[in-house]
Design brief:
heterodimer; A: about 70 residues; Alpha-Beta Plaits; two-stranded antiparallel sheet; 3 helices; B: alpha/beta; Rossmann fold; 8-stranded mixed beta sheet; globular
Chain lengths: ~70, ~270
Amino acid sequence: MDLKDIPEVKINTDWCKSCGICVAFCPRKVLEMGMFYAQVAHPEACSGCKMCENLCPDFAITVTLPVKTAEKVK
Amino acid sequence: MDYLYYLRQSKMPHIWCDGCGHGIVLKSLLRVIDKLGWDKNDVAVVSGIGCSSRTPGYVDFNTLHTTHGRALAFATGLKIAKPQLHVIVVTGDGDAVAIGGNHFIHAARRNIDISVIIYNNYIYGMTGGQVSPTTPTMKKATTTPFGNPDAPFDISRLAAAAGAAYVARTTVYHYARMDLYIEQALTKKGFSVVEVLSPCPTSYGKLNKLGNGVDMLMYQKENTVSLEKAAQLTPEELENKIVVGVFVDKEQADYQEHYQKVVQKSHNV
């Protein structure tokens, strides 16, 4: 699969407090807890539901949908 | 949407603990304001003292951080002086119904056009985990090490009884529902209250052995019942359940309308 077709999950490591909410609630288990902050372990599994972004209390996760999907959502 | 546009980035990251739900509520509020397309200069966020009341420090609107419990008193003055502003009060359970309890019920009775978002975490988090009026019976706080003997306030039913035009309760886990309720509250004419149950793993969770933020969110996920469903359940079945939903949604003349009439009459004298 072309990487451009999957959503991009970015983690702001300066703001992440490693509470683990995103890791626990991601339905596709995209994220894993690293030593100091959450990490995107399986980017290809992401469906772009934005659950992690909406539940992150620290404004540390940004999910950018690929252009095609973003147009469909509109 | 871009949350950073609405944040004072120099103040970030915020002071809320890891696993605290307050950031989720703030995000929901920002999403709703973004959806409604309100200009930053037309929004005023007012708060008192407490964890939740740190919110105005992080958002780039007109903000007012006031004395403990008096957020609604300041907001009332602000709304009357500048009726064109969208006045939003963010407050905690201790701030709203303990020290500010009287302001809260009288603002609801007056039905002034203010939206209140109450972050209810069952405890005074910032000052060290003292018991609050919403701490459930026999739950522990630092000031009640053997359990709280008092019955808790039901904030939503209190607001409904006091005469608010819109009252809803939700949890931070149900963020889509929270977006919907906050949007309805912000666009409602009259006094509107959204009570959001937010986990406090550092004080309440630790003292009552409820685990970390993830465990407390999981509890919300598994133990929430809607208002319609709750009506069919017995009190025993409802024990330890969280009842969410819209408690009141009614149209009625707000304070501004009545006040304008008084002003008109005074001019005629």
